[in-house]
Amino acid sequence: MTLHSTPILYLNMGGEMLYVLRQRLKAQKIDVDKTIQVLDDVTTALLNPKILSPIFEESPMIGVSQLRATLESVALSSIMKLDKSSMDKLFDLMIMMVKYQLKAATGPREVILIILNHIDAMRDMVSDVSAQKCVSMVHQMIVNFYGCLTFDEVWNARQSCLKELEPYNVRVSILLRRGLQNDDASFNVTPQKYDEKYGEHRNTLATMRIKDVSPETCCGGSLDTFGDRKTLLGKNIYLPTYGITESARRDSQQLLRDCGAKAELGMLAVQLGTEETNYERPFTLNLLSNMDEENVNNANREIDTEGNNAKRSNAGNEKPKLNEDYKAKLDTVYADFFEDEHEGLKRSMDLLDLLDEIE
Hints:
Order of helices and strands: HHHHEHHHHHHHHHHHE
Distance between the termini: 32 Å
Structural class: mainly alpha
Helix content: 55-70%
Strand content: under 5%
Region (Disordered): 301-321
Number of strands: 2
Number of helices: 15
Largest sheet: 2 strands, parallel
Strand order of the largest sheet: 1-2
GO cellular component, one term: plasma membrane
Protein name: Protein OSCP1
C-alpha cells in the first residue's frame, strides 16, 4: 500500500463537503453573515495544522471510517446541526464525487490538479484572514509533498484511493443528470479537453519526479498558487458555470461589454441630436390594470365645448383602478419573500435536505 494516499482522500472529500454546504446554505436562504461564518469555520477546522500534520505523514493510508470521523468533527465545528441521516447523505456525496474524479483522472499530474482545484475553491469561499493563510499554507504543502514524488508514486497513490473507495456504490442524481453515472452506479468517463494519456507515456515518465517535468508535457496544468489547472475535475459541479471554459466566459463578458458600450453610445448620440430621436422602447410594462376603455370613451363623448376643461380636470383627478387579482398575487409573493424574516433564523441550522437526492 502506498504511503502518499491520505491527503488525496482527505482534502478532496473536504472540498466536496464545502461545495455541498455552500450550495445548501444558499438554497435555504441562510443569512449571508451566517453563511460566511460557517464556511470560514469549517475551512479553518478542515485545514487545522494539528489535523494536517498526521495526514501528510508518509504512512499507510488512513481508512475511510477514520476519515469520516475526522470530517464529521470538522463539519460540526461551526453553528450547524447535522443528524446521522444528514451526515450519511453528505458522506455519500463526498465519496462518490471523489471516486468519480479519481476514476476520470488521466494521469498523475491531474491527480494533484484535482486537489488544487478544491484548494482554489476554498480560497474563493473564505473571507477570514486566518482561513486564507491556512489555504495558502496547504497549497504549498501539496506542491512540496507530491512534487517530489515520481509519476508512478502519485499514480499508485491514486490506485490505492480507488481501492479504498471500491465498496461504495451510490447513485448520485447530479452525476446521473449529467450522464456521468449509470443506473447501476458505475461511471461514464467521458473524454475531456485535459488528457495526459499517461498510459502512452508511462515508460518515459514513470520514474521522473513531478516537479522535474515541464507542465506542457502534461497538458499544461499549472501547480502555481493562481495558475490555470486546465482540468474540470475537482471544480464545483453544483455551480451553474461548471463546464464553461475560461475562453468562453471571457468571450461572453466581452460581448456584454460591447453591447453595453454600443447602447451607451446610441443614447449619447440621441441626446446630442446627431440621430433621429424617434427611439421607442421595445415594450412598456404596466403593473396597473387596464383602464376601462369603454367607460373612458363614453365619458369623452359626453364632454361638450363649454364643459371641456371641467371634464378633463375630473378625468385627470381619477385614480387608476388596481387589478385586484394581480395585487393579491403580489401580496402572496411579498409574504413568501419575507417569511424567513418574520420567523427569524435559528442558531442551529439543520441541513437534512441536502443538495442531491441519494437514490
